């Protein structure tokens, strides 16, 4: 089966209104995809989509809430059809729940796990039947090097990203026979601001635009290829 050109693909990017997600959404839009990005507030999602331009739409999604995920998925499927690309990017960062295990507020733990892990499961599950029925699709999991190495004071974030690794591997074995690729990206430290710095040289960190370009590139690869798990580093950080 010949792959669709990027201009005929629908991409859903959770948490696409700012930071890393905004750069991923912009890269997919620049590649020609129709893009639906999300934020917890509808106004912020719409404004981010307007700035990206092209065929980009912004919708509200609170990944901590099952009802919000179900409503969002229903709207996407009803208005736009089955996503060709799902980018599970929405997450609470490590700074959202810092502290030793003894000090960590259980509510902060629950919030990170609900967003970074359970929300990914629920959002993927909401679109999976339609992707399986069509027998094609790409699912990107935006993880972190924190999903491979624990650090003191970030146990909740580490647990969510380690869990995402296990979930993604199990999912890949379930859906690969339906021509659905599951690809996990593990960025190291990244700059999520505007891409105005040097692209190579001393003191250069990875930029969020690089992750966006990587997602667009991987999605464009022939369907018989798959990068299951990719660690991504800046070439020459300080």
What does this structure look like?
The chain has 238 residues and is an alpha/beta fold. It contains six helices and nine strands, in the order βαβαβαβαβαβββαβ. It has helices spanning 19-30, 42-52, 66-79, 106-134, 155-175, 208-220; strands at residues 10-13, 34-39, 56-60, 85-88, 137-142, 180-187, 190-191, 206-207, 229-232. The protein has a seven-stranded parallel β-sheet with strand order 3-2-1-4-5-6-9, with helices on both faces. Strands 7-8 form a two-stranded parallel ribbon. Strand 4 (85-88), helix 4 and strand 5 form a beta-alpha-beta unit. The longest helix has 29 residues, at 106-134. The mean pLDDT is 94.
Offer a few descriptive terms.
238 residues, alpha/beta, seven-stranded parallel sheet, 6 helices, globular
Give a brief description:
With 238 residues, this protein is an alpha/beta fold. 42% of the residues lie in helices and 17% in strands. It has helices at 19-30, 42-52, 66-79, 106-134, 155-175, 208-220, and strands at 10-13, 34-39, 56-60, 85-88, 137-142, 180-187, 190-191, 206-207, 229-232.
Number of helical runs?
6
Low-confidence blocks of residues = none
Q: What is the CA–CA distance across the termini?
A: 46 Å
SS class: alpha/beta
Cα radius of gyration in angstroms: 17 Å
Estimate the helix proportion, in percent. 40-55%
Q: Largest beta sheet, briefly?
A: 7 strands, parallel
Q: What is the strand tally?
A: 9
Mean pLDDT: 94
């Amino acid at each position: 089966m010949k792959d669709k050109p990027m201009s005929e693909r629908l991409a859903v990017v959770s948490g696409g209104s700012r930071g890393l997600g905004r750069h991923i959404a912009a890269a997919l839009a620049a590649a020609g995809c129709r893009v639906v990005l999300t934020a917890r507030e509808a106004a912020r999602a719409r404004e981010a989509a307007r700035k990206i331009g092209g065929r980009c739409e912004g919708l509200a999604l609170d990944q901590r809430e099952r009802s919000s995920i179900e409503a969002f998925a229903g709207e996407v499927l009803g208005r736009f059809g089955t996503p060709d690309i799902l980018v599970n990017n929405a997450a609470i960062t490590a700074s959202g729940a810092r502290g030793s295990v003894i000090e960590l507020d259980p509510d902060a733990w629950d919030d990170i796990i609900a967003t970074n892990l359970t929300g990914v499961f629920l959002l993927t599950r909401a679109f999976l039947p339609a992707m399986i029925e069509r027998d094609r699709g790409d699912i990107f999991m935006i993880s972190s090097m924190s999903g491979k190495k624990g650090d003191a004071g970030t146990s909740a974030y580490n647990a969510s990203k380690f869990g995402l690794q296990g979930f993604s591997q199990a999912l890949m074995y379930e859906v690969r026979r339906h021509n659905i690729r599951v690809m996990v990206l593990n960025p190291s430290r990244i700059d999520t601001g505007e891409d105005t710095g040097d692209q190579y040289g001393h003191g250069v960190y990875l930029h969020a635009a690089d992750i966006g370009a990587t997602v667009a590139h991987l999605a464009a690869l022939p369907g018989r290829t798959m990068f299951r798990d990719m660690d991504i580093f800046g070439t020459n950080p300080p």
